[in-house]
Amino acid sequence: MKNLIITTLIFIFASSITFAQFGSAGTVEARSMGMAKTYNATTRGVMSIGINPANLIYNKPDDIELATVLPLPMVTLRSGTDFMSIDEVNYYFGGVDGKARTLTADDKKNFNDLFKDGGFIFANVATRLLTVSYNSTPDIGAFAFSINDVIGGKFYLPQALVDIALSGNPTGKTYNFDDADAKAWWLRNYSLSYAREIPEIPQTIFDKIGAGITLKLVQGFAYVGVEHANTNLTTGTNNTISGTADFLSYTAFSEDFGVKYDFDSVDTESNMGLFPSSAGNGFGFDIGFTAVMDKWNFALAITDIGSVTWKNHAAQFVATGDLYIDDFTSEAQRDTLADKIKGKASPIGEFSTSLPTALRLGASYMLDGEDDAIPGTLLLAIDYNQGFNEMPGNSKSPRFSLGTEWKPMDYVPYVRMGFSFGGADGFNWGFGLGFDAGIVEFNLATSDFQAFVAPGSAKYVSVAIGSRWKF
């Protein structure tokens, strides 16, 4: 059970690894991060995978692109909360002169107010194993193959947990934990994409229209997920606590993790490597459409349609019934209460989870120096992303974003900036640079530039680097 707890904490507090865009709000490669994750109508070549496969058609005939760990690995780091700034973290947890801070009544109230809508905590690291794309002639189309590891997770800290810690045990108060949630997984997608122009469709509006599809073979290595946590506690007289528990969660882990459940009779050792055995398997697909009209580019896609079935080393944790304790000094009563709240583990044959299905809409406009009286080229873009579930990397709250990419002249880097609103992240200010050396391109970005401008008030911190070969 100790290994299970450690592994679960790793997923909850150090997760959300995505590289090809996964869900409506997940982490992306450095170019798109610099534009505040504005990418639906602007990605090209290998960057299109996971966003809109139709955008593969925009490379020139016989163009080949490759993204891997060399010369610069594609890595994204992101961490933070949606409720507490760095200054607030330092105030409440930093102490005073090396000693713990004594909180006043106002401090406790202000700290509790930070969690009035619950608390979202995360830490992100991202990488891509391999992606290659090839664009043939327009009548044949474009192809791409990609291997992406996705570790995504999110943890919602219920406000009641903070309230009970600060308020103690006042008589007649009820604490509800219904908003508690945790979901995390490690998936590997083997993706095959195809896109083609569609001149057969009679139309006179657009210069070019195209469609694309990505088929994904999904291998799952680990999953931790709370289905519901309808638990409440009420304080009574004489320091009694009573309530009801209704909790259900599912887990599944590769045998190579070495996780031992309470019902397991044999210890297993961790044997982690680059290719662990699977805990589940599934299938998914993306479909996308794109159109060009003069300098305008329009995009529509639905991504990650599908599911994963978890069969290996799967378990469920169930807690139901009444809760009661009348003696906080009794270790036995405290342990019994804790066991009832967290649930009892039992083996399960299988369970399924949806992929983070999302709708993507985007439009972009390209200005160039010759026609628009600006130096170099300037790309303007707007996006709308809408998740259909609350799986890791996704959000049913819509996300809007605006992004720009400006290259003022030759031998000057691409300068990228953007703003994102809504979704799981709230407000983001992206900034990035791109260096095109012909055969290879380098990108550096952050989707949280406000953290560098005003670090004390920042809630998120991120940095992304990456490169791609172009032949």
In DSSP terms (H or I, runs of 4 or more residues), the helix count works out at: 8
Rg calculated over all Cα atoms: 25 Å
Low-confidence stretches: 1-20
What structural class is derived from the secondary structure elements?
mainly beta
Average pLDDT level:
85
Q: Tell me, briefly, the overall form.
A: globular
- The count of β-strands is 22
What does the main sheet amount to? 22 strands, antiparallel
Strand content: over 45%
Instruction: Give the class-level CATH name.
Output: Mainly Beta
Q: End-to-end distance, in Å?
A: 51 Å
Mind telling me which CATH architecture this is?
Beta Barrel
Question: What's the CATH topology label?
Answer: Porin
Q: Residue share in helices?
A: 10-25%
How many domains is the backbone divided into? 1
- Taken in chain order, the helices and strands follow as HHEEHHEEEHEEEEEEEEHEEEHEEEEEHE
